[in-house]
Amino acid sequence: MVKMKTIMDLPTLSSGVRLLVLLCCTALMACGGGGSSKQAPVSSQSITLATSAASVSAAINSSSGSPNNSSVNSSVAELMSISGRVTYDFVPHNPNNYGLDYAATVAKAGRNLVVELIDNRNVVVATTNTDNFGSYSLGVESGRMVKVRVKAQSLRTQTPAWNFKVTDNTNANSLYVMDGNLIAASEATAVRNLHANSGWGGSGYTDPRVAGPFAILDSVLSGVDRIVAADSQVNFSPLELRWSVRNRTAEGDLTLGEIGTSFFSGTEIYILGSEDDDTDEYDQHVVLHEWGHYIERELSRSDSIGGDHMKGDKLDMRVAMSEGFANAFSAMIIDDPDYRDASGTLQGGGFSNDVSQTNNTVKGWYSEASVQSVLYNFYASGNGKTPGNFADIFKVMHSVGYLANEAMISIYVFAAELRNLLPMQAANFNSLLAEQDIELTNALGDGEVNGGGYTKSLPVYKQLVVDNSAVNVCSTNRFGSYNKLAVAQFLLLKVSSESKYQISATEVGINSGNSDPDLYLYRNGKLFEYSEDTQIDQEVFSLTLPAGTYVLEVVDDRVKYNDGLNQTEACFDVRMQRVN
Fold first, then answer.
1. pLDDT digit string (tens) for 93-136?
2. Above 90 in pLDDT, residue 61?
3. Rounded Cα–Cα distance for residues 230 and 388 (Å)
4. Which three-class secondary structure state does DSSP give residue 148?
5. Rounded Cα gap, residues 386 and 439, in angstroms
6. pLDDT, mean of residues 478-487
7. Termini Cα distance of the chain
8. What residues contact residue 73 under an 8 Å CB cut-off, 6+ apart?
9. Between the CA of residue 66 and those of 57, 70, 120, what are the distances in Å?
10. Which of 35-44, 400-409, 492-501 has the lowest mean pLDDT?
11. Alpha-carbon distance 556 to 473, whole Å?
């Protein structure tokens, strides 16, 4: 009869052995029974920063004499538990500035992580997840040579389901792991605690930064907790968060760490990690901001075109909504409105952004500062609701009316859906909108009077009728190129019956030079068709359209892509007619 010993039956390792385990775990590499390796890392399938196969073999031989010596006849072997706790160093921000405060480093639980027992032949013999306290327990035959491996991965297969990994984009997107010592399973070695060190040596990083991947993953799990609390039936698509100590602010080859900034690519999140440049693994707001963009794609909707943005910019309304939401979202998840990003020498500099600020320099439907203020302050407010309840905001952004709205996603769409779904909170939300000079209107922003200092940016949507009559719109870079206010103009058009139609844009008025109008047609936020011919001063395309409502985006290609231009404005007459 095989007997399973419980965790409570097993003694804790002696202090000497426990220290050996912790020292071994100060690097994301495979360690032998006698200590940690310092050799250069190479990838090993999905495991990054693992030692070479030869080094693993040497470590095994030094611990057990021969790999075969650890084999156990399971029919007679006694089963026992290997258990312990996984923790990692978390470095908070200095309360007096933007930088990291290494002196205040604390150990946090490595929660909901994949843990494996690996034998001396590198075979996985058991697997589990840590709990919310970082604790784990795995069964194994007594006497078998095993080590504990903790993956920078959180995996759950039942609803709510997710699979989040932290990988190294500079090492073939290999998964980060933390390995313990290879030791025979016995009562003396039954408790194996693993701790991921920050690697900080007092005036720089002197040891491998093992804690980084686990800090990133824990921030994501904080977001998971809040969303699951709002809706326990959600499932998340798999996501990799790609971090490396080589990831720096230079732009170029992602596989070399030239990522420019932390960003969501639409499929993965890339995170900065270059010492004395910009490290984001402990910047919870930054990690959650990018994860917020993933949540928009995964569980909500974003029509953002991305691009550079700052708090004081006048932005395309789609970008203002997405960036404002992501800033507010990060603050909501950790209940801290002071958005911080550490960077510079010794990670002692950076910047701060109070997302709850109401007296913003730039206010309006085109301002990420206004959007984040409205959303965060609604979240934090009482006024008939529970302060700090994320469920209300998630209900709106996850609703059918939001996901399938005919308008492009903006603060107007969010406000309209909130009024529809949470009518008791309409007055509260409206007051926050008014505080940011945003009109209390419908999803299209009809009647908006705040044009951001450019009257031609209004109305937010021009009406295009299928009768070949002209609607004049102007594309300008007066606020910047690409994703700034008034680079793109939007027209709403309604098609009553399926037919073939022609849409055109022709420059009129003051000649701005060789303008190049481009046309993009959307239906419920999805690109339906586009025309980007290089013909000077006009664009024409014909297409068959089913009945429905569409949004036409008109831009001057010069304005959209060239920051080096002097201030440019090109105005176009846009027409639409049936052609059969």
1. 999 889 999 999 999 999 999 999 999 999 999 999 999 999 99
2. no
3. 12
4. strand
5. 26
6. 96
7. 84
8. none
9. 9, 8, 9
10. 35-44
11. 11
Q: How far apart (Å, rounded) are the C-alpha atoms in residues 407 and 429?
A: 20
Residues found in the chain: 580
User: 517: exposed, middle or buried (C-beta count within 10 Å: 0-12, 13-18, 19+)?
Assistant: buried
Please name the helix (run of DSSP H) or strand (run of DSSP E) that holds residue 124, with its range, or none: strand 124-129
Pick from 182, 213, 185: which is nearest to 83 by CA?
185
For 322, other C-beta atoms within 10 Å of its C-beta total: 26
Q: Which residues contact 218 (CB under 8 A, 6 or more apart)?
A: 88, 90, 108, 110, 111
Exposure class string for 351-363: b at 16+ Cβ within 10 A, else e: eebbbbbeebebb
User: What is the rounded distance in angstroms from the CA atom of residue 313 to the CA atom of residue 316?
Assistant: 10
The phi and psi torsions of 460 (rounded to 5 degrees) equal -55, -45
Question: From residue 126, how far is each of 116, 122, 555, 568 by CA, in Å?
Answer: 6, 12, 58, 65
User: pTM surpassing 0.90?
Assistant: no
Tokens of 36: 């940690």
160: number of Cβ within 10 Å: 14
- pLDDT band of 8, cuts 50, 70, 90: very low
User: CA 64: distance to chain centroid?
Assistant: 44
- Give the distance from CA 487 to its chain's centroid: 27
Which candidate, 156, 147, 175, places its Cα nearest to that of 37?
Answer: 147
Contact 287, 220 (CB under 8 A): yes
Three-state SS string across 377-444, please? HHHHCCCCCCCCCCHHHHHHHCCHHHHCCCCCCCHHHHHHHHHHHCHHHHHHHHHHHHHCCCCCCCCC
Distance between CA 214 and CA 87 in Å, rounded?
9
Amino acid letter for position 363: K
pLDDT digits (tens, 9 = 90+) for 213-234: 999 999 999 999 999 999 999 9
**Closest to 315 measured CA to CA, from 377, 363, 387:** 363
**Alpha-carbon radius of gyration of the chain:** 28
**Angle, CA 300 vertex, CA 299 and CA 306 arms, to 5°:** 115
* Gap between the Cα atoms of 238 and 113, Å rounded: 15
Contact 370, 358 (CB under 8 A): no
Residue entry with tokens 């419908």: 442
- Residue 4: Cβ within 10 Å count: 10
CB 176 within 8 A of CB 213: yes
Q: Can you name the residues that pair with 300 across neighbouring β-strands?
A: none
Strand partners, 79: 4, 141
Q: Which two tokens stand for residue 225?
A: 């907790």
Tell me the angle at which helices 411-421 and 368-380 cross, rounded to the nearest 10 degrees: 20
